[in-house]
TrEMBL record:
Belongs to the UPF0235 family. Signal peptide: none annotated. SMART domains: DUF167 (SM01152). It comes from Gnathostoma spinigerum. Gene3D superfamilies: YggU-like (3.30.1200.10). Coiled coil: none annotated. This is DUF167 domain-containing protein. NCBIfam families: DUF167 family protein.
């Protein structure tokens, strides 16, 4: 396995799990960093009433080209550390997803 093994993994149902460190209330939404454990994403939405969570799903949907209803927030509703799951029928592998995320990193 490569060094990004924990950030993007498959679960037992072949769904893709992405470990995210969210930074809500940022000036603009951007994928800011990718390391072995997580993907850091700044979100230009406040962390109240789920606005940042919704915005996060929008960002991932756009970046990955996956429909929003294929993406769900599995863990971390009220935490900065979040686990997002993408349905197995999205047609992407973990390495596809990492590639798309890397191509969109914007410090």
């Amino acid at each position: 396995p490569n060094s990004q093994e924990k950030a993007v993994t498959l679960n037992e149902n072949d769904e893709i799990m992405i470990q995210i460190h969210a930074k809500p209330a940022a000036k603009k939404s951007a994928i800011t960093e990718i390391n072995a454990d997580e993907i850091s994403i700044s979100i230009a939405a406040p962390p109240n009433e789920g606005q940042a969570n919704e915005a996060l799903i929008d960002i991932l949907s756009e970046t990955l080209g996956v429909r929003k209803n294929s993406i769900r927030l599995e863990k971390g509703m009220r935490s900065r550390s979040k686990m997002v799951v993408i349905r197995s029928d999205c047609g992407l592998t973990p390495s596809d997803i990492l590639g798309k995320l890397k191509a969109n990193v914007n410090e």
